Amino acid sequence: MNTRLVIFDLDGTLLDTIDDLASAVDHVLAVESLPRHTREEYRMMVGGGIRKLIFRALPETMRSDAFIDKCLSRFVDYYSDNIDRLTHPYPGIGRVLSQLESHGIAMAVASNKFQLGTERLVGRFFPNVRFVAVAGNCDGLPLKPDPAVVDRIIAAAGVERCQTVMVGDSGVDMSTARNASIRAIGVTWGFRSREELASAGADSIVSTADELLDAIISPHSQQ
Question: Which of 29, 172, 189, 197 has the most other CB atoms within 10 Å of its CB?
Answer without folding.
Answer: 197
